[in-house]
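Dear U.,

For the methods section draft, I wanted the exact inputs and outputs in one place so we can describe them consistently. I've listed the two proteins in the order they'll appear in the manuscript figures. Please don't edit the token lines directly; just add comments below if something needs changing.

First protein:
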Amino acid sequence: MKTCLIVDDSRVIRKVARQILEALGFACDEAENGQAALDVSKAKLPDFVLLDWNMPVMNGLEYLNAMRKMPGGSKPVVVFCTTENDINHIQEALGSGANEYIMKPFDADIIRGKLEQLGLI
């Protein structure tokens, strides 16, 4: 079973994303900020990370940069899921190693389509 780490400071967003991803066959872990996500990733890298940008303690971009430097850190597929929709944010995310980018709000069809596009389902 593929694993997913859902990283968002909103408990509601994490819950909704977990329901969608578990229905698609993923085993999910959650983290409320980038530092918590980094701690989870150090214990075991997930196959897929659904990552918010704006969070306290450590933001999504800081997490992404730190995770990509870890042994095996190039392997997880990372999709930013955020309200940041300007081209500069998207370019910065992709330039830092994100595989894709989706906007909030999202639904099951959006996540399923992105995962199909990335070859994860």
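Second protein (the one for the lower panel):
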Amino acid sequence: MIKKIVLNPNRIRRIPSSFGFIPHRFLTEGFLASLKQQELVLYWFLILASDAKGLSFYNYKTICKLLKLSREDYLQALDGLLAGDLIAFDGTIFQVLELPLKPVTTSKQSGGEKADGNK
């Protein structure tokens, strides 16, 4: 096992009262690998923008401008996150959801590949 040593003790990250949270299983259980690049960028933005309950209400024009996404890329990313059961959206309010038990993949979302990259 690798022994972890703080590389820069003057710059240890501190978690403030308001912060974005991504569970470690997002990486280790295939959620990261299951997302396209635009989906990942939008998902991380929504995590950073949301409150403790996962709620945020940025409009698509602001999101597209901040993330440098076209409207089409934004809509595809939104559809992918909704299909992946990672967010809920009512047309105004986003909610980042608790991760499902495993990544939800569809042929449209993954291009025919499973989350582990195998066909």
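Candidate sentences for the figure legend, describing the second protein: Helices lie at 25-28, 31-34, 37-49, 60-67, 71-83, 107-110. The first strand starts at residue 55 and ends at 56.

Thanks,
Y.
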